[in-house]
């Protein structure tokens, strides 16, 4: 196959995996990212899998999978703070910037265009032209939409494939290790902790600190609390600021109303184990994210393809979105290396559609209990009625997703 010119929309992990791998295959690649800021600063904890490191090695990045923060088991904490269940499985948690930064550094600086927002595309039989908010136009043989779950590219090529609200939001926060007093540190820091109040789920885990620091005392602690919120009234209310302006389905942390934050902390006190309630109370900046997922009927249309969350976005319970984005990029690069371009895109569509759908379904399954909170109780069945703590500890995260389900071939 003769390599051509690829335009990548979105310069996060998916766009950079694709950009680096296609460059390696001889393609001329330009990445266009809407944000003008350094995305390494997103700073959340992240579950990783070996496959992710394998794709990084293909790019020439030599990650050290052991350089995260290790936990020895998963525990469920009761309201009274006692451990009700333990599932012994070691894991290493990493941080977003440990994945993002080397990908960014591996990609030529001059081909990464920050502060560029794609607004429209013009397809042709043998290529695509991208049009940006600043009025510029760029033509390529292939356009890769790696612009996330609310993808502009997907909105243009598949306007009916829209994200689906899961019925709940995630409150999130990050603390410094030094914020945890010794007794809380002892109870939490060596575990992946779960709290399962009726109809809700909180997970909490240690992660590397600033600049991926893993030295004791310099690490961080990350929690994510899933709470049901209805779409029509509850979500707009949470996303309305002090001036009465509703920001849609998301709101920047500094604009969240104080009474909303107070409710979260008071509710933590009322329903969570004291260790987890402490962690929530101690968090300085609470972030709010409505949970959506996305299933696409196709991921290649003409010379435009979708990749990462723009193609399929699973709920965060699977903890595998970054790995899926890496595998999408590897599948696309392999197909383009072996076949002529249109046949390659057709193969990519087939391979990664199957893997993406499986992951989305797994995320929905893991979120069954949370989503069911909007159904009348009498209509709920099985996992919709109650969380089984042992099953949650066992099934949560990507460890239960088999290589075949992820579409891994190696
Ligand atoms: C609470 C939570 C926890 C998670 N935990 C994990 C985890 O533990 N492990 C894991 O693997 N995954 C996790 N994920 C999922 C993971 O974050 C995503 O799967 C991953 O970020 C997808 O990467 P992406 O590059 O496809 O999209 P994104 O990271 O969403 O990036 C899209 C990029 O496109 C840019 N963009 C958007 N529109 C335009 C435009 N019009 N023009 C130009 N640029 C544009 C955006 O600015 C952005 O930088 C979690 C997600 C959530 C919500």
Please, could you describe this protein's structure?
- It is a single chain.
- The protein has 410 residues and is of the alpha/beta class.
- The protein is 32% helix and 25% strand.
- It has 13 helices and 19 strands.
- The protein has helices spanning 13-24, 50-59, 96-106, 152-157, 182-188, 234-238, 258-271, 274-282, 321-338, 341-366, 368-371, 389-395, 403-406, and strands at residues 5-9, 28-33, 45-47, 69-71, 73-77, 83-87, 91-95, 112-114, 118-124, 127-132, 137-140, 142-145, 164-176, 191-195, 201-207, 220-228, 287-293, 300-301, 304-306.
- The strands form four sheets. Strands 6-5-14-15-16-13-17 form a seven-stranded mixed beta sheet, with helices on both faces.
- Strand 1 (5-9), helix 1 (13-24) and strand 2 (28-33) form a beta-alpha-beta unit.
- Helix 1 (13-24) packs across helix 2, helix 1 runs parallel beside helix 3 (96-106) and helix 9 packs antiparallel against helix 10 (341-366).
- The longest helix has 26 residues, at 341-366.
- The radius of gyration is 21 Å and the shape is globular.
- The protein binds flavin-adenine dinucleotide.
Present the secondary structure layout.
Elements: E1 5-9, H1 13-24, E2 28-33, E3 45-47, H2 50-59, E4 69-71, E5 73-77, E6 83-87, E7 91-95, H3 96-106, E8 112-114, E9 118-124, E10 127-132, E11 137-140, E12 142-145, H4 152-157, E13 164-176, H5 182-188, E14 191-195, E15 201-207, E16 220-228, H6 234-238, H7 258-271, H8 274-282, E17 287-293, E18 300-301, E19 304-306, H9 321-338, H10 341-366, H11 368-371, H12 389-395, H13 403-406
Parallel strand pairs: 1-2, 1-12, 2-8, 5-14, 12-19
Antiparallel strand pairs: 3-7, 4-7, 5-6, 9-10, 10-11, 13-16, 13-17, 14-15, 15-16, 18-19
């Amino acid at each position: 196959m003769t390599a051509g010119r690829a335009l990548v929309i979105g310069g996060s992990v998916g766009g950079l995996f694709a950009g680096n791998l296609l460059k390696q295959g001889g393609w001329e690649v330009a990445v266009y990212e809407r944000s003008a800021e350094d995305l390494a600063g997103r700073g959340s904890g992240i579950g990783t899998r070996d496959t992710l490191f394998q794709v990084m090695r293909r790019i020439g990045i030599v990650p050290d999978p052991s350089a995260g923060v290790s936990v020895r088991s998963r525990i469920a904490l009761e309201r009274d703070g006692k451990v009700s269940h333990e599932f012994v499985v070691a894991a290493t948690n990493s941080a977003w910037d440990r994945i993002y930064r080397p990908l960014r550094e591996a990609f030529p600086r001059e081909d990464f265009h920050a502060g560029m927002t794609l607004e429209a595309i013009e397809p042709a039989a043998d290529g695509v032209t991208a049009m940006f908010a600043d009025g510029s136009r760029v033509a390529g043989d292939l356009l890769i939409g790696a612009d996330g779950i609310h993808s502009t590219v997907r909105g243009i090529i598949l306007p009916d494939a829209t994200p689906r609200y899961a019925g709940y939001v995630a409150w999130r926060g990050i603390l410094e290790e030094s914020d945890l007093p010794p007794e809380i540190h002892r109870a939490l820091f060596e575990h992946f902790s779960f709290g399962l109040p009726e109809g809700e789920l909180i997970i909490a885990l240690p992660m590397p600190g600033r600049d991926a620091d893993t030295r004791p005392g310099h690490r961080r602690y990350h929690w994510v609390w899933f709470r049901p919120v209805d779409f029509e009234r509850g979500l707009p209310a949470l996303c309305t600021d002090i001036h009465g302006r509703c920001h849609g389905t998301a709101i920047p942390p500094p604009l969240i109303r104080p009474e909303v934050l107070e409710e979260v902390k008071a509710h933590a006190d009322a329903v969570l184990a004291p260790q987890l309630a402490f962690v929530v109370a101690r968090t300085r900046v609470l972030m709010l994210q409505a949970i959506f997922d996305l299933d696409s009927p196709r991921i290649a249309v003409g010379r435009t393809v979708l990749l990462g969350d723009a193609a399929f976005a699973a709920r965060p319970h699977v903890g595998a979105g970054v790995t899926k984005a890496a595998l999408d990029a590897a599948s696309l690069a392999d197909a383009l290396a072996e076949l002529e371009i249109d046949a390659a895109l057709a193969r990519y569509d087939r391979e990664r559609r199957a893997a993406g759908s499986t992951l989305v379904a797994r995320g929905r399954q893991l979120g069954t209990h949370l989503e069911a909170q909007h159904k009348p109780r009498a209509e709920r069945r099985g996992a919709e009625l109650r969380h089984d703590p042992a099953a949650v500890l066992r099934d949560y995260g990507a460890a239960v997703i088999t290589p075949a389900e992820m579409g891994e071939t190696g």
